[in-house]
Write a structure and sequence with these properties.
InterPro entries: P-loop_NTPase, Therm_gnt_kin. It contains seven helices and five strands. The chain is an alpha/beta fold and 173 residues long. A five-stranded parallel β-sheet has the order 2-3-1-4-5, sandwiched between helices.
Length: 173
């Protein structure tokens, strides 16, 4: 049975980049959570309309299923998902051997990075709403907290080292 690592955080933390690099380093399957959104969800977010829980839960179930399918084949999976609320993390982790990597970032740095992105569906106006609903992980949630205000190389190295030590090499599989 494989393990699932969910790389989480607000927009602009580098979730996709870090998750791809982590998946490559540990030989896991990379799953871009944003690619699993419905067209309706994407259109709402592109228009600056925050998703409601009724929009999110079907998507979270799809993300959960994608990880479980990989794990059932004995493969590790690395999924990107903002996972801003504990209830969302609980839904993602259901029936999964799941661990979270929380990329923690300041609002100022998040805004700066989102403003610099080209071709992404998430407008800068959504950053504020993400910080408003963010429930940071608490001890006992199987979460590694990484400060992501640093260079990408530093963050990827830190994430890879800590996932190996705390999840893969610890017998958590």
């Amino acid at each position: 049975m494989g393990v699932s690592i969910i790389v989480m955080g607000v927009s602009g933390t580098g979730k996709s980049t870090v998750a791809r690099a982590l998946a490559d380093r540990i030989g896991a399957v990379f799953i871009e959570g944003d690619d699993l959104h419905s067209q309706e969800n994407l259109e709402k977010m592109e228009s600056g309309i925050p998703l409601k829980d009724s929009d999110r839960y079907p998507w979270l179930q799809i993300c959960n299923r994608a990880m479980r399918e990989q794990n059932a084949q004995g493969k590790d999976a690395v999924l990107t998902c903002s996972s801003l609320k504990k209830a969302y993390r609980d839904a993602l982790a259901e029936d999964c051997n799941a661990y979270f990597v929380y990329l923690k970032i300041s609002k100022e740095e998040s805004l700066k990075r989102v403003n610099q992105r080209v071709g992404h569906f998430m407008p800068t106006s959504m950053v504020e709403s993400q910080f408003e609903v963010l429930e940071e992980p608490e001890p006992g949630e199987h979460t590694i907290i990484i400060e992501s205000d640093r260079s990408l190389d530093q963050v990827v190295e830190d994430v890879s080292r800590r996932v190996r030590r705390n999840v893969l090499d610890s017998g958590a599989r």
